[in-house]
């Protein structure tokens, strides 16, 4: 099939590349010329494991191209995927301005039998609105479908190639058949292809992200409670997770969820509820708990240093909102760093992939260390904000020598408190006793 993917960000680039890899002819379109030029030079604008190799392979096979020319990409396309950003607007609802502008621009170039598919996360009713916009612009009924994406950054290729399920929202069975054919190569392990109305598909995406966010906020609240009552959330996590009704996934306590999706999607769903006259009690609580959780390490640091951080040097390991990505959108590490700078601390940072993005925002306000151990030299404490594999088994004796005082604030519970105590550290983590 000939496919146009509009919006070549995390989702658009992965979607386009994976569809090209399964034999389709894909043109990825973006409004950002610098990004398209970079892709045409063979440079990948984001860090996502395995993506660079897959892009290169499919470009060489002449199945994957990049352009800023929307008309040229749309004209021959059997399917036009929309994967532009849908960021949070000032009122909390999703801002769909990029999407509307794309729909208007592509309408004159759409083949009469083409299918337009939303891959972006869009509020319930968006497919219906695109359908009426296209009717207005083209004078005919066009097929518009929803196909929400469930990939995780850092595992995007794997998630796309081996999805737990594929969800499509369609008005006609013929459109479901076309999308089923497109996805068949990815469903060979008998994973379900679920066809429903566009409204249900759009809602499915928000409900999935909201439920995952709820699990995280729930375990974080329980972790904070454990700490005050003398329990250990790790033991509690194990204690509940073996119950097959509960399970272990997404119940790791930490410094709050970040990223470009959970925070905005919870708020967008909240906004939809309010628009429809429903009080989103749980969603508001999930968001509020998460905002509070981003400052739990700051509270521990403040207490330890008796509120005086002026002249102190703090090392921060992990800047990305999660491991295996360079994405720093809504990263909890940045909330901590802003607070440390405000308190007058000197901040030394390390991250395996995200330092370039942080440097673009913070410039010389921070000291950037290419090696994780360099960040520790002369530091009064180390804060761990992202659970990169690089931080799981460091040389604790060497760290002890490098740090000015052996104090660790671990926002991801990477180490065993008792062992840290034996190694001579003062060790604070989430939902476990400080030692
Ligand atoms: N990042 C993720 O892991 C996931 C994101 N999503 C959803 O996918 C959508 C896209 O997210 P990301 O890829 O992360 O966003 P992104 O910000 O990385 O990429 C969006 C791209 O769209 C381009 N764009 C904006 N206006 C355009 C226009 N008029 N014409 C052509 N291109 C245009 C931008 O230049 C940018 O390259 C969002 O709705 C998001 O909620 C869904 C699942 C996972
Ligand atoms: O809509 C989206 O954009 C995507 O959002 C999330 O994916 P992503 O944000 O890339 O990463 P996650 O692995 O879900 O992590 C999100 C945040 O939750 C945090 N988290 C995750 C799991 C956990 O147990 N505890 C926890 O604090 C992570 O540290 C991270 O900050 C969802 O997992 C994807 O299914 C979805 O497609």
TrEMBL record:
Q: Which annotated residues bind substrate?
A: 150-153, 205, 250-254, 258, 322
Which keywords accompany this UniProt record? NAD, Oxidoreductase
Top EC class of this enzyme: oxidoreductase
Q: In which pathway does it act?
A: Nucleotide-sugar biosynthesis; UDP-alpha-D-glucuronate biosynthesis; UDP-alpha-D-glucuronate from UDP-alpha-D-glucose: step 1/1
Catalysed reaction(s)? UDP-alpha-D-glucose + 2 NAD(+) + H2O = UDP-alpha-D-glucuronate + 2 NADH + 3 H(+)
Record GO biological process: polysaccharide biosynthetic process; UDP-glucuronate biosynthetic process
Q: Which residues form the active site?
A: 261 (nucleophile)
> Binding of NAD(+): at which residues?
30, 35, 86, 121, 153, 264, 329
Write out the GO MF terms.
NAD binding; UDP-glucose 6-dehydrogenase activity
Pinpoint the UDP-glucose/GDP-mannose dehydrogenase C-terminal domain residues: 315-417
Q: What is its EC number?
A: 1.1.1.22
Question: NCBIfam families from the xrefs?
Answer: NDP-sugDHase
Family according to the record? Belongs to the UDP-glucose/GDP-mannose dehydrogenase family.
According to UniProt, the name of this protein is: UDP-glucose 6-dehydrogenase
Instruction: List the top taxonomic levels of the source.
Output: Bacteria, Pseudomonadati, Planctomycetota, Planctomycetia, Pirellulales
Q: Which gene encodes it?
A: tuaD
């Amino acid at each position: 099939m000939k496919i146009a993917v509009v919006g070549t960000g995390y989702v658009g680039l992965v979607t386009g590349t994976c569809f090209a890899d399964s034999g389709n002819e894909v043109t990825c379109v973006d409004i950002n010329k610098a990004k398209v030029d970079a892709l045409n030079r063979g440079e990948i604008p984001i860090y996502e494991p395995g993506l660079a190799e897959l892009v290169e392979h499919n470009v060489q096979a002449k199945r994957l191209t990049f352009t800023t020319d929307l008309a040229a990409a749309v004209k021959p396309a059997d399917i036009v995927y929309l994967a532009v950003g849908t960021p949070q607007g000032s009122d909390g609802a999703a801002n769909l301005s990029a999407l509307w502008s794309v729909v208007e621009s592509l309408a004159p170039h759409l083949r009469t039998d083409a299918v337009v598919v939303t891959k972006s996360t869009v509020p319930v009713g968006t497919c219906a609105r695109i359908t009426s916009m296209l009717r207005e612009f083209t004078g005919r009924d066009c097929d518009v479908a929803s196909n929400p994406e469930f990939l995780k950054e850092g595992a995007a290729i794997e998630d796309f190639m081996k999805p737990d399920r594929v969800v499509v929202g369609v008005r006609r069975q013929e459109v479901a058949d076309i999308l089923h054919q497109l996805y068949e190569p990815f469903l060979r392990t008998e994973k379900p292809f679920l066809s429903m109305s566009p409204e249900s598909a759009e809602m499915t995406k928000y409900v999935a992200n909201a439920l995952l966010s709820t699990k995280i906020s729930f375990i974080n609240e329980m972790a904070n409670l454990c700490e005050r009552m003398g329990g250990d959330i790790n033991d509690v996590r194990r204690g509940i997770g073996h119950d097959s009704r509960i399970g272990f996934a997404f119940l790791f306590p930490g410094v709050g969820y970040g990223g470009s999706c959970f925070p905005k999607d919870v708020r967008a769903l909240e906004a939809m509820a309010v628009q429809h006259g429903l009080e989103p009690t749980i969603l508001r609580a999930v968001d509020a708990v998460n905002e509070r959780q981003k400052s739990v390490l700051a509270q521990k640091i403040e207490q330890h240093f008796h509120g005086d951080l002026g002249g102190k040097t703090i090392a921060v390991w992990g800047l990305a909102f999660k491991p295996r990505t360079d994405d720093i959108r809504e990263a909890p590490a940045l909330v901590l760093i802003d607070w440390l700078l405000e308190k007058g601390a000197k901040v030394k940072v390390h991250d395996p992939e995200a330092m370039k993005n942080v440097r673009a925002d913070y410039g010389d306000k921070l000291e950037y260390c290419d090696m994780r151990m360099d960040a520790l030299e002369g530091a009064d404490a180390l804060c761990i904000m992202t659970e990169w594999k690089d931080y799981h088994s460091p040389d604790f004796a060497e760290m002890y020598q490098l740090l000015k005082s052996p104090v660790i604030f671990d926002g991801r519970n990477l180490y065993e408190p008792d062992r840290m105590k034996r190694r001579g550290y003062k060790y604070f983590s989430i939902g476990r006793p400080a030692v």
